[in-house]
């Protein structure tokens, strides 16, 4: 591939960017290209001017890429080669030996930041089919925990021997703890604040409890032009949150394989919401069958090991079950987390959602609850739900607390606006 840039003259001589032939900048550039391209590139790439020749990488590095690496660079290159080197590319030399993979996991954690380690781990599982090695406790102890690894372990839950399952629970527990530390406080603040504000009163006890926007609107008739002021004869305020249950929240989560990361995040959020006394939170997961995990919400790790990732999808059956949980429609928020690929009766599913909305239930459909970007989903079903007045969009975990706060306050949340910073709506502008 061609690579041009500054620091090259017309003859392809690299001056290091500082006016001297070669130089430290040239050495560093050559080193980086060598690590990117692998050992097969050593000594084979020559400089041909401005980087227009085929087979050129590094655009004018005289003498090609030096194959000699030593020290930490050599060990870093070996770690990359084990995963990515193969015929014609960086690709496939790890093998399937658990001890060797465990050593490799230790190496990449030493030489790369955790975000890169997580990507390399995911590549190793996908490219080299190392899934079965996740069943071995020794290897699990060496991995860098992240949401994707947790999802992979959960998908293997039924296959694990008992000793590996114990180690897997520890790994998943570390992931859950990190997510709770990141998301719990913000979720509690957003939702409890929304519950406080949703209780209106005409006799606010403190200035902080006055809803000034509503107060001004209610007293515009008392405007005094000569003083350019509004006399607040009537106050509108936020009541303090009551201890009684104010809202019912039903989380209905698709546990098919494509929704794995969403299942992890939904379990954490379910546990956080269940800790709020003024909410009654239910968590239901489904594939072609339905499992109610509400009783496990005090332990999100236990919730996750109660799921069974993979299999088909019957959204209609899950929605029907959740309808039976709803006893106060006007005070219920129903959140369906699914990519909407329906294996059940589509018409029945849409009819049930229409019945929910008609009875006063706030229905929200999240096509994904993850940081993975725009998901794959059934566009026809998403459009049909939108026609019923039900928003369908992908939502990041960081945006979910604000979304729930808007739902608790019964605000008509603008999901197009939220798409700019978090959720991505069906049909929203890009």
From TrEMBL:
CDD domains (alphabetical): VWA_YIEM_type
Q: Pfam families, from UniProt?
A: VWA_CoxE
Q: Where is this region: Disordered?
A: 1-27
SUPFAM superfamilies this protein is in? vWA-like
- Domain (VWFA) spans 246-405
| InterPro entries named among the record's database cross-references | LolB, Uncharacterised_CoxE, VWF_A, vWFA_dom_sf
What name has this protein been given in UniProt?
A: VWA domain-containing protein
Instruction: Tell me what organism the protein belongs to.
Output: Microbispora oryzae
């Amino acid at each position: 591939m061609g690579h041009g840039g500054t620091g090259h003259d017309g003859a392809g001589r690299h001056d290091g960017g500082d006016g001297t032939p070669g130089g430290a900048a040239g050495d560093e550039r050559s080193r980086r290209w060598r690590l990117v391209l692998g050992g097969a590139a050593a000594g084979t790439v020559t400089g041909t001017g401005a980087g227009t020749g085929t087979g050129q990488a590094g655009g004018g590095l005289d003498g090609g890429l030096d194959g000699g690496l030593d020290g930490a660079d050599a060990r870093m290159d070996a770690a990359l080669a084990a995963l990515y080197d193969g015929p014609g590319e960086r690709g496939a030399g790890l093998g399937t030996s658990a001890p060797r993979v465990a050593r490799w996991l230790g190496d990449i954690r030493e030489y790369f930041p955790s975000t890169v380690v997580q990507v390399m781990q995911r590549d190793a599982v996908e490219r080299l089919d190392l899934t079965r090695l996740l069943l071995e406790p020794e290897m699990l102890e060496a991995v860098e925990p992240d949401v994707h690894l947790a999802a992979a372990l959960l998908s293997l839950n039924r296959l694990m021997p008992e000793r590996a399952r114990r180690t897997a629970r520890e790994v998943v527990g570390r992931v859950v703890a990190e997510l709770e530390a990141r998301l719990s406080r913000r979720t509690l603040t957003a939702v409890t604040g929304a519950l406080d504000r949703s209780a209106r009163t005409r006799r606010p006890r403190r200035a902080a409890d006055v809803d000034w926007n509503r107060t001004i609107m209610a007293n515009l008739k008392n405007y005094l032009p000569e003083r350019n002021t509004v006399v607040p004869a009537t106050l509108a305020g936020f009541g303090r949150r009551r201890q009684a249950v104010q809202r019912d929240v039903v989380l209905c989560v698709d546990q098919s394989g494509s929704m794995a990361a969403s299942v992890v995040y939904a379990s954490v959020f379910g546990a956080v919401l269940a800790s709020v006394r003024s909410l009654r939170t239910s968590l239901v997961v489904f594939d072609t069958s339905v499992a109610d995990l509400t009783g496990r919400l005090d332990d999100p790790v236990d919730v996750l090991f109660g799921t069974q990732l993979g299999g088909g999808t019957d959204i209609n059956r899950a929605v029907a079950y959740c309808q039976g949980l709803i006893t106060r429609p006007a005070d219920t928020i129903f959140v369906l987390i699914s990519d909407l690929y329906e294996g059940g009766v589509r018409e029945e599913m849409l009819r049930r959602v229409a019945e929910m909305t008609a009875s006063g239930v706030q229905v929200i459909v999240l096509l994904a609850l993850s940081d993975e970007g725009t998901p794959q989903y059934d566009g026809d079903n998403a459009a049909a739900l939108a026609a019923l007045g039900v928003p369908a969009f992908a939502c990041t975990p960081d945006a979910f607390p604000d979304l729930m706060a808007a739902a608790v306050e019964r605000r008509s949340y603008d999901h197009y606006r939220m798409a700019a910073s978090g959720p991505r709506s069906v049909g929203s502008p890009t």
